[in-house]
Design goal:
Elements lengths: L3 E7 L6 E7 L1 E4 L3 H8 L5 E4 L4 E4 L4 E5 L4 E5 L5 H16 L1 H6 L4 E5 L2 H12 L4 H20 L4 E8 L5 E7 L6 E4 L2 H10 L1 H7 L9 H23 L1
Parallel strand pairs: 3-6, 7-8
Antiparallel strand pairs: 1-2, 4-5, 6-7, 9-10, 10-11
Bound molecules: zinc ion (ZN).
Length: about 240
């Protein structure tokens, strides 16, 4: 069961103190309402009645889906204590057989903000594999940079569902209020699942880990290196 601590947080606009519930974890299937809020991107937001604004709050929280078997740690700051806790948890996964058995077949992820948490929950709900979504993003980024983003820095790129079915990219640009949207070609995803299967399995860390752009870059670089080495061998 989640432990909810009450905390007073000042509205950034009017400075009024608002009482907020800080959840140490969200556990599915029990906390279905909280999950809905995560998916609507309002769970880590506070409403000020006076100003009628929503403002973000960031704190560490664990999202554990017992049925779909995944655990995501939202770690906004990643300070020394966070790092030590992650290391300790991963050690426990290695050494604690009871925990390993209880969580057989689990996926473990670390995310840094609520958008990332929302995206992972959405991807896993859809029965998709976030590792191939991340490698697919790298295929799209150069196109977005030269095309839709142009003079703006890309601050975030998220996988999402279109209203009329199918998937879309949500591209968050610096100094732009509205995100840009672009269709996702899932053939690329299917193609990657076939081509990168072995290397992705091999490069997926045990325990809690960030599966994000830098990880995906590593995967694609390793694949290119190996393909080049194989080609050279064949030529010799
Ligand atoms: Zn206010």
């Amino acid at each position: 069961m989640a432990e909810i601590k009450k905390q007073m947080i000042a509205c950034p606009k009017c400075k009024k103190n608002i009482e907020v519930g800080i959840w140490d974890k969200i556990e599915l299937p029990y906390d279905a309402d909280q999950k809905e809020k995560v998916l609507r991107n309002v769970f880590f937001k506070v409403h000020c009645d006076t100003c009628n604004i929503l403002f973000p709050i960031a704190y560490r929280c664990q999202y554990n889906d017992l049925e779909n078997k995944y655990l995501i740690w939202l770690v906004p700051r990643m300070d020394d204590r966070d790092k030590a806790d992650i290391e300790a948890y991963n050690q426990r996964l290695k050494n604690d057989n009871v925990l390993r058995l209880a969580q057989g077949g689990y996926r473990y992820r670390i995310v840094r903000n609520d958008n990332e948490l929302r995206e992972k929950v959405f991807i896993f709900d859809e029965g998709l594999d976030d590792r191939f979504i991340e490698t697919m993003k790298l295929m799209y980024v150069p196109m977005f940079k030269s095309n839709v983003a142009k003079d703006h820095r890309i601050m975030g790129l998220y996988f999402d569902k279109k209203k009329d079915g199918g998937y879309q990219w949500v591209i968050i640009l610096e100094k732009m209020m509205q995100p840009l949207l672009a269709d996702v070609n899932m053939e690329i995803y299917e193609d990657m699942k076939v081509k990168l299967k072995d290397i992705v399995e091999e490069m997926t860390p045990e325990g809690l880990a960030q599966i994000y752009a830098l990880w995906a870059k590593d995967v694609l670089n390793t694949q290119v290196e190996r393909a080049t080495a194989e080609k050279q061998e064949a030529e010799e």
